[in-house]
From TrEMBL:
This is NRCAM protein. Residues 5-107, 111-207 form the Fibronectin type-III domain. SMART domains: FN3. The gene is Nrcam_0. GO terms for cellular component: neuron projection. The keyword DNA-binding does not apply. PROSITE patterns: FN3 (PS50853). PANTHER family: CTX-RELATED TYPE I TRANSMEMBRANE PROTEIN (PTHR12231), NEURAL CELL ADHESION MOLECULE L1-LIKE PROTEIN (PTHR12231:SF257). Coiled coil: none annotated. Keywords: Disulfide bond, Immunoglobulin domain, Repeat. The keyword Repeat applies. It holds the Pfam family fn3. InterPro entries: FN3_dom (IPR003961), FN3_sf (IPR036116), Ig-like_fold (IPR013783), Neural/epithelial_adhesion (IPR051170). It comes from the Eukaryota.
Length: 207
């Protein structure tokens, strides 16, 4: 098997899900056989938004021939990763380079995990929601938009409310009685807005 590990391993983080890794080729005589390529082992150490320890799954990408760089796609935003590089010949892999640590920046969050509308009265509705399964960063706020729908399914004026990120419920007041409303709800990080979930609810007709 090869004798030495690739040197001078460098990681360039391109965005929240993609990084580029470079390395120096090993001297030909240390390959001790036919150079087949290089393998990059990489794994997520932890999410920076949640201190959850979980089973660490190592991923391997093989770059054929005498390439000295490769792309690592499909990374998770706002996470800490480690990687190392090994040279491969027909017999197997050489030793691993020292582990290199890199961090991906924040991304936009996934949609809130649920939106529930309860306690309808003549002029109010209660909203409850769950935070996104994948915050992909530090949540800065929630954005709620809503508008009335009339009997011919035309949409009325859209109202937008920004809600602090630590809230999980809201009572909407001063609504019209016996009116159907459509709600659009999403979470935000400093990078931008995540995907929204929609829901409809009706205020009651009379007490």
């Amino acid at each position: 098997v090869p004798m030495v590990a690739p040197g001078n391993v460098q990681v360039h983080v391109i965005n929240s899900t993609l990084a580029k890794v470079h390395w120096d080729p090993v001297p030909v005589k240390t390959v001790r056989g036919h150079l087949q390529g290089y393998k990059v082992y990489y794994w997520k150490v932890q999410s920076l938004s949640r201190r959850s320890r979980r089973h660490i799954e190592k991923k391997i990408l093989t770059f054929r021939g005498n390439k000295t760089f490769g792309m690592l796609p499909g990374l998770e935003p706002y996470s800490s990763y480690k990687l190392n590089v090994r040279v491969v010949n027909g017999k197997g892999e050489g030793p691993a380079s020292p582990d290199k640590v890199f961090k991906t920046p924040e991304g936009v969050p996934s949609s809130p995990s649920f939106l529930k509308i309860t306690n309808p009265t003549l002029d109010s509705l209660t909203l409850e929601w769950g935070s996104p399964t994948h915050p992909n960063g530090v949540l800065t706020s929630y954005i709620l938009k809503f508008q009335p729908i009339n009997n011919t399914h035309e949409l009325g004026p859209l109202v937008e409310i920004r809600i602090p990120a630590n809230e999980s419920s809201l009572i909407l007041k001063n609504l019209n009685y016996s009116t159907r409303y459509k709600f659009y709800f999403n979470a935000q990080t400093s990078v931008g807005s995540g995907s929204q979930i929609t829901e409809e609810a009706v205020t009651i007709m009379d007490e």
